[in-house]
Amino acid sequence: MSRLALSLMTIPNPTPEAPPGSEGLLTLLNWLSWIVIICGLAGFLISLCLLAFSAWTGREVVGVKGLVIAIVVCILATSAGTIIQVFA
Fold this sequence. Notes:
By secondary structure, the chain is mainly α.
């Protein structure tokens, strides 16, 4: 193959770069991700307590539903960067 054909077949792999002046926005996004993770963890712990309390009253469904929601929130919050990189 010729050099021209090889250079046309090469797929570029650009490196993402933040635009100038976006430091404030990135800091805000970092803080927001920490807040979401903390809220997800708090929801997880609250759901565990609710599940333990509901075991005595026979309403375990409420605790399990909250626990599942908290787990999904924690998974999405920690994998948001990877999800965005897939679609970007």
